[in-house]
Fold these 3 entries.
Entry 1:
Amino acid sequence: MPEDAAPIVLTKGSRYRITSIETRDKPMVSHGIFRGLGTIGTDDAISIELDASHQELAGKMRLIPTHMVVSVDIVEQIEEKKEKAKEPKAMYG
């Protein structure tokens, strides 16, 4: 990666196509909106809200253990929002 290139990170609200291991001979392809990271037991997982291409599963959440991910295709990347510094919620006096 060139020195001036920003690292690519998964951002909430972005659309991805994730290929993961379903069986030894068959991959599982998930299309949808990234909703964040989660856990399954002690394993990290990608949370994706499935889109209409999944028919009856459209709108359902799928957790994909990160160690099962083969590839991630970026369909639509949303800029990561920087949080503004918040004022302290304490009163002094």
Entry 2:
Amino acid sequence: MCHKVCTLSKNKDGQLTYCSTCDIYHLYFNNIYLEFKQSEMECFKKFITHINIEYWESSNDRVLQKRKIPIQTMQQNLAMVFNRRELYSLKAILFETNDKIDAPISLSEIDYVQYLN
């Protein structure tokens, strides 16, 4: 169980935290949750920086889905797919530290359908 968790960065799509007790990074991104050791985090960051967005968007231009950029996992039949905006958002979480980590999010950042009666 993680006891000393600190938030390293976050945005409206997710956040990156680190537990100094477990020496584990926790990446929450939309509906994805990943845990990394230090070496795994460095490898993941390196992999993310080398993704060729234009290649994947052009090679999958006939795909009707809006998410065309795959990130393959160790499990052969499982891949995570992103669109350009999501990938940039993921990169922002991985590579940028946010000075306003504990600042409240704005109303426009909440992904919720609101019905006014």
Entry 3:
Amino acid sequence: MSKKYVLVVDDDPDFVETVGMMLESKGYEVGKAYDGIEGEQSILARKPDLLVLDVMMPRKNGYTLCAELKKSRDTRDIPIVMLTAVGEAVPTTSYSHADGMAMEADDYIPKPVDTQALINAIERLFS
């Protein structure tokens, strides 16, 4: 059986590296992207088995990318774990709870991320 390929898309390089190392230690193959446009390009180049997607990113936010992926016949079946600090940021940004509730993500993990909760969510979605 081949390794599951997980794409991590977040504009915080330290977070991407940390999560990447953690997932690799669990036997996953990891792809990395640092904003929504780069994430979209990575998905087109190689469809991941699962996507870890931050909400607040430059160029294309996670809500927009998630909505586009879920509308496409080619990508709608990719499980998506959304990472969000939006709850704390709603008063100071254009993001809203309604945006999050409208998304078809498969799970939500609040930031700061509990890495074990993220691993548990990924393993649950793969089972």
